[in-house]
Amino acid sequence: LVSVLSSAIIVYRLPWTWKCSKLLMKFIHAGLNTIAMILAIVSMVAVFEFHNARNIPNMYSLHSWIGLTAVVFYSLQLFLGFAVFLLPFAPVPLRAALMPIHVYSGLTIFATVIATALMGITEKLIFSLKNPAYSTSPPEATFVNCLGLLLVIFGVLILWMASRSHWKRPPEDNAKVLRPIGGTPEGTEAESTMTDGSNADKSDLRINSEAARKQNLKLDEAGQRSTM
């Protein structure tokens, strides 16, 4: 979750991906999240099987509580992300309304995963290091403590990249992010089918098309904080 989920978070924020189509980036983002979810489920099964084989109680520590909570909410995040942002059925207003929630929940889940990893490695050290004890700072303790510091630095770096405006995907490359997949540019198809009609009707159509385009750009700008 730490490595693959972080890649999914910043996939839109990498400058060399800005030339790729938004649809391609959506599939890459969804694919990375799916891989992370599969690995998380495999890990959860492995933990429960290990505990049962060693007669270790399940779900008694804060590490296990927060870890399971992160996995449950991550599965909900993945399902809603597929249903709302990847499939072409959700209306644009719904996508715009859910985008801030999608962004905030994704970053919150990532921060929770970092916290769970820190608690997990500390718990493992306390249980495993008996002679010498963890409190005497043996080399194993120093190594894992350094690993924890690196996890914190890595998490802060990912959250910083996800929150900086200059890491955003340029708006001109992102103008169609909220348009349903397979849709046509605003006004193009409608104008081509109007072979008859007055100049006033055509003028109204152009005005409406321009208004729709500006509305989409505003909705897109509202979602530019998204890493999802």
From TrEMBL:
Cofactor(s) demanded: heme b
Record localization: Apical cell membrane
Biased composition (Basic and acidic residues): 199-228
GO cellular component, one term: apical plasma membrane
Catalytic activity as recorded in UniProt: Cu(2+)(out) + L-ascorbate(in) = Cu(+)(out) + monodehydro-L-ascorbate radical(in) + H(+); monodehydro-L-ascorbate radical(out) + L-ascorbate(in) = monodehydro-L-ascorbate radical(in) + L-ascorbate(out); Fe(3+)(out) + L-ascorbate(in) = monodehydro-L-ascorbate radical(in) + Fe(2+)(out) + H(+)
Residues of the Cytochrome b561 domain: 1-163
Pfam families: Cytochrom_B561
Region described as Disordered: 173-228
Record flagged with keyword Membrane: yes
Primary location: membrane
UniProt keywords, alphabetically: Cell membrane, Electron transport, Heme, Iron, Membrane, Metal-binding, Oxidoreductase, Translocase, Transmembrane, Transmembrane helix, Transport
Membrane topology: Multi-pass membrane protein
Keyword DNA-binding: no
Transmembrane segments: 23-45, 65-89, 101-121, 141-162
Gene Ontology molecular functions: metal ion binding; transmembrane ascorbate ferrireductase activity
SMART domains to which the protein is assigned, alphabetical: B561 (SM00665)
Enzyme Commission (EC) number: 7.2.1.3
Highest taxon above the source species: Eukaryota
PANTHER family associated with the record: CYTOCHROME B561-RELATED (PTHR10106), PLASMA MEMBRANE ASCORBATE-DEPENDENT REDUCTASE CYBRD1 (PTHR10106:SF12)
Quaternary structure, from the entry: Homodimer.
Protein name: Plasma membrane ascorbate-dependent reductase CYBRD1
